[in-house]
């Protein structure tokens, strides 16, 4: 390790209040809070779509194929008939059979959707009695224009004539048709029918439709076919489904990446400059050897224990940088190097230790949060960009995230809406999207809605900020001392000049900026998945960003340096009682400013997309882009993902 990196590493481990030791000894050593209640629906609402030739989803839909097979004319195709006939005695008194084939093209249901219910509606022209007619899955491909009693196509015979062999149809009954009258008749498919349609959605090549047949019924059933002259009488399949996750749709979308890729190819700034910074920096090393450990242990509060912590953060940053370089160049060496890192962690990491009250494991939850913010970004890009990463290995990586990382962050952190909780929320959402876990995604939305209100103060909140559950009394008021402690000596609330203050601003602007980063990144992911968290807290987030930016623009040093500056008497009035630097109390009425490599996402959404006014943030952004580093934990390469993308892909 180079000396400069070693010194930075040492500082991150040893000095309370530095950026990486984000919990610091100042926070109470308490365990995770109780699970956040799930609230609000995730993704889009359930969608119901009907498939009916010439009617829906549109009048141009022609995706229904059907025909009937007759034993008495084993070489005759009936694909153009306006009727579908099923009978165990057709023609009458012949003892011969007739049955039907029916298939709907359901490819307009998006990939990843979860099928909830399926109904088949037909128009009965000749009712039956006695035994019902049964619906099975067809087991082999067949042609509407070629299928006969003897053949599925002109070149393929049925295993057993009439599509009655084990390879011709499934063994399970998906639904039963037993109409008592003529006219419209609907059958609701059970679990096995839903599973069949789900399989067609997941893999359209397996959609061979249905076989309609009876075991013994000699009282025939006739249905209008998809060639019936009256459109409303044609067979209709109605499917209700829950839309799946958009991929890639974690932190950044394909459309956004393609936008940036085009800007780089055109030599446009700031994209090309940041691409060159990534491509020539140490994180682009394709020969890098990852350094995972089986059991990770991360100390703080005076403990110097670091077993795999710093190394894993560096590995995660390298994997992310390499993944972006792969996407923007399509040079396989970048993808292979990133995959090697992810596979190493999938195969090795089993747990991140945390024992409440043990300083040698104190930062375990925070470490897990950072890894959950970074690692899934790389995995999402590689998995859905043709990188050569096998699906089996991509799934194994997701298993590792849930096994080793998720348990440390899924229930948040006691003490309110600090950067810990916001990083955890962002990480939980990332894991949810990557692993296609809708219940977990719902939980991350609920976490975001709670913690963003605890983190950023608005005067509309009242005379005091919103306390976390463990910070308030039964009547909702703050517990004694909790407000001053968690807001690091801020005493004034309720006035317009405090509007937008972040909970950790009096600690230092670095930690407050980390919350802006995690909150905006999670909101971006949610928006890509159809949930607009940005809109829910627009006033709050804009106010907080502008509050910090108005101090950062005129005062913060270049190249990500830190500087303590004096401020008015109403701001951080008792800071010295709650914040120490190098073991010494800091002065009251001061703040420590620092520009970190974020801000692109929040500015792109509210200004470029929505046209809102954020003048101070706008003035800050050029300084962010010109900063000495473009990577700092979750705040990494935002210019290469979100600069100027606007509403592309939404």
Automatic annotation (TrEMBL):
Pfam families registered for this protein in UniProt: Alginate_lyase (PF05426), CBM96 (PF24517)
Residues making up the signal peptide according to the UniProt record: 1-21
Alginate lyase domain location: 315-454
Location of the Carbohydrate-binding module family domain: 59-152
One Gene Ontology CC term in the entry: extracellular region
Keywords: Lyase, Secreted, Signal
Keyword Glycoprotein: no
Subcellular location: Secreted
Gene3D superfamilies on file: Chondroitin AC/alginate lyase (1.50.10.100)
MF terms in GO: lyase activity
InterPro entries: Alginate_lyase_dom, CBM96, Chondroitin_lyas
Bilayer-crossing regions: none
Designated name of the protein: DNRLRE domain-containing protein
